[in-house]
């Protein structure tokens, strides 16, 4: 049984859906009205132009979908027969999508905590079972925390594990760096630096999983600079140009095992100084370039999924997008049905792009109202979880929502969220008046 989606009637004051209550912009209406005039025509089969426009803003390849949920289900089909980890509690459709896709082994990880501890635990758990993918929700739904550098920290830990366990130089000073199965090819005076095959640093054999990150509520994070955040996330998708990749590696701009990088560079430089051999220098540069390419491959396995309807209060349109590397998006596109995005949601996407709203949805302004609501819930004796977005998770007696529904209020029961239960509830932050009415009703319940 699915508990999300709210109550489709205006009779109830609905706190269960994390979508702001606001009217559709008049300019957006004009885009939609124009699209309705052409409903006798097929829409674009893949909305390539809109994807390219959005991709230019994000610095990534983009795929539009019929809401974030369609893209979640499509991504699950990439891992049929694989081991997958879902970081819980989280949006319940991840598990449902993976079950339908018949993944080989589905693992759930109970993980709530600070950013560093979560990154370490997720990476260690996924590496320990040889996971092909990790699904996580950031900002988390239903808890509400947001860890801005969680994904990059997980990538760093995996890169360190690969360079540390597969390549001994990361732990013992560059004695034996293997980038493939050809141990006999030595470069730059470092006996074990080999290049070839795919054993050591190549992503597929080293166990770097795909990180599928649901950022559906990213617009609501307190004071977030969404443009800057998107740029930081895009760096995890990889650098396509080999020269840029090698340059970034030498500069130390890439967040991967800098100690090992410095060790390898230092030992190579020492050897070059001793021998002054140009051919050896060329081999060392080629080895570094190959290694840089391999590291980029590791970091390219990130897929970010976002909703375009929550921040603009149009969930009925069903519109979302996935962003990632070219390789990742091409694979995902093969799992998405043609004509997934109809003419009306495509017109709304055009409105968002034409009016430069992708980074300016102006909904990250709930902090004062959220803190007031959280304080009110705590005063009633409920345990309230800290939140960075427009909803709150709290713990209260079972059956609370039955009482509220009898009074034409509705909140989200968390009975279907893993590691929670029917004594946990989630409420969205609405207007000051609506929030006050909810607190008054809850006060009567507690008497």
Task: Give a concise summary.
It is built from 17 helices and 13 strands.
Structure notes:
This protein has helices at 26-36, 48-58, 67-76, 93-100, 115-129, 150-166, 169-172, 203-206, 226-234, 242-251, 258-275, 278-299, 326-333, 343-354, 367-379, 400-406, 432-446, and strands at 13-14, 61-65, 83-88, 105-110, 133-137, 210-214, 302-307, 320-324, 383-384, 391-395, 409-410, 412-413, 424-428. With 447 residues, the protein is of the alpha/beta class. Helix 1 runs antiparallel to helix 14 (343-354), helix 5 crosses helix 6 and helix 15 packs parallel to helix 17 (432-446). It is 43% helix and 13% strand. The longest helix is centred in the middle third of the chain and has 22 residues, at 278-299. The chain is built from 17 helices and 13 strands. A 7-stranded mixed sheet has the order 2-8-7-6-5-3-4, sandwiched between helices. A 4-stranded antiparallel sheet has the order 9-10-13-12, with helices on one face. Strands 1-11 form a two-stranded parallel ribbon.
């Amino acid at each position: 049984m699915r508990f999300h989606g709210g109550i489709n009637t205006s009779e109830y004051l609905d706190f269960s859906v994390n979508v702001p209550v606001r009217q559709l912009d008049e300019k957006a209406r004009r885009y939609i009205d124009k699209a309705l005039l052409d409903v006798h025509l097929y829409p674009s089969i893949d909305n390539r132009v809109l994807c390219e426009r959005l991709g230019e803003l994000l610095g990534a390849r983009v795929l539009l979908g019929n809401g974030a949920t369609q893209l979640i289900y499509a991504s699950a089909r990439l891992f049929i027969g694989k081991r997958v980890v879902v970081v819980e509690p989280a949006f319940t459709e991840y598990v449902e999508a993976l079950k339908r896709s018949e993944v080989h082994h589905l693992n759930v990880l109970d993980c709530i905590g600070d950013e560093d501890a979560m990154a370490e635990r997720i990476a260690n758990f996924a590496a320990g079972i040889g996971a092909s993918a990790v699904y996580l929700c950031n900002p988390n739904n239903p808890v509400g925390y947001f860890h801005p550098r969680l994904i990059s920290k997980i990538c760093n830990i995996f890169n360190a594990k690969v360079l540390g366990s597969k390549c001994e130089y990361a732990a013992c000073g560059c004695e034996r760096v293997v980038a493939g199965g050809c141990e006999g090819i030595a470069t730059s005076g470092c006996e074990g630096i080999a290049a070839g095959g795919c054993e050591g640093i190549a992503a597929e054999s080293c166990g770097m999983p795909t990180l599928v990150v649901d950022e559906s509520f990213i617009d609501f994070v307190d004071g977030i600079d969404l443009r800057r955040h998107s740029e930081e996330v895009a760096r995890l998708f990889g650098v396509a140009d080999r020269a840029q990749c090698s340059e970034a590696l030498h500069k130390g701009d890439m967040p991967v095992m800098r100690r090992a990088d410095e060790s390898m560079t230092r030992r190579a430089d020492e050897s070059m100084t001793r021998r002054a051999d140009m051919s050896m220098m060329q081999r060392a540069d080629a080895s570094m370039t190959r290694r840089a390419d391999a590291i980029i491959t590791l970091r390219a396995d990130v897929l970010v999924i976002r909703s375009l309807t929550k921040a603009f209060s149009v969930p009925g349109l069903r519109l979302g997008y996935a962003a990632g590397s070219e390789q990742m998006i091409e694979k995902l596109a093969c799992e998405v049905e043609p004509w997934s995005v109809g003419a009306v949601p495509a017109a709304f996407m055009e409105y968002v792009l034409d009016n430069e709203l992708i980074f300016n949805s102006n909904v990250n302004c709930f902090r004062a109202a959220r803190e007031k609501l959280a304080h009110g819930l705590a005063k009633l004796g409920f345990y309230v979880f800290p939140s960075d977005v427009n909803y709150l998770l709290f713990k209260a007696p079972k059956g609370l929502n039955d009482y509220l529904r009898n009074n034409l209020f509705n909140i989200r029961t968390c009975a279907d969220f893993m590691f929670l239960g029917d004594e946990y509830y989630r409420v969205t932050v609405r207007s000051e008046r609506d929030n006050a009415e909810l607190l008054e009703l809850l006060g009567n319940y507690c008497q």
